[in-house]
Amino acid sequence: MKKLLLISILAVLVIYVFRETVYKPYLWKKTMETPEHKLQLGSYIFSKQRGVNGSQSTEKKYFVFKVTEINGDYVRLSVIRQLSKKGNPKSSDFSMTRETYRSLKRNIKKTKITGILREDLTKEGEAYTVNDYLLNKYPSLKESQFYYEEIPKAEININTPKDYFNLIYSKEKIIEKRKLIPYTILDNDVPQLARQLSQRVCLILN
User: Fold this and answer.
1) What are the C-alpha distances in Å from 137 to residues 5, 15, 114, 116, 142?
2) The pTM is what?
3) What is the pLDDT of residues 41-75, one digit of tens each?
4) Which of 9, 32, 115, 204 could form a disulfide with 150 if both were Cys (CB 3.0 to 4.6 A apart)?
């Protein structure tokens, strides 16, 4: 009986390892070849994360990103957020509720998401808050207050960004490993992958 139980446990472990190391990566790569899920400029990346920004917290956070630039292995992402209403600021880490995250997964193609320049988000009133200036400059916000930070022209097509090197990830790792692994700049100005900050990609939609 013990021998049979041990064989059963080993069989389950083998199946689990095979599924996680061979079958799931295979399915992910096949999916990435389809037009709806291929990583490209304008793609939306969905990610459930724990321990965001180096935190040891086990609380799950929900994020949706828009791909705003691909340059070699550098993939620049911008977080999809909602503008706050006056006097009611959103979470400081810009994560979403689970309900909003799920809603965007179902309706991302139907949802208007406006690109806003970073400087405009803090130009008038409370930062990241709906105001007349934003509504006048970006009329689409009247339809939906979801937005992402647009890249200023001066920051487009930078080979090794230094001043704005956050939210830049490895294209190879997204495609091959299904992981968001960010680049960081060290003291010698050499960009390196911060594997300790790796987070799982749940879904890519175009």
Assistant:
1) 67, 55, 11, 9, 11
2) 0.83
3) 999 999 998 765 555 556 788 999 999 999 889 99
4) 115
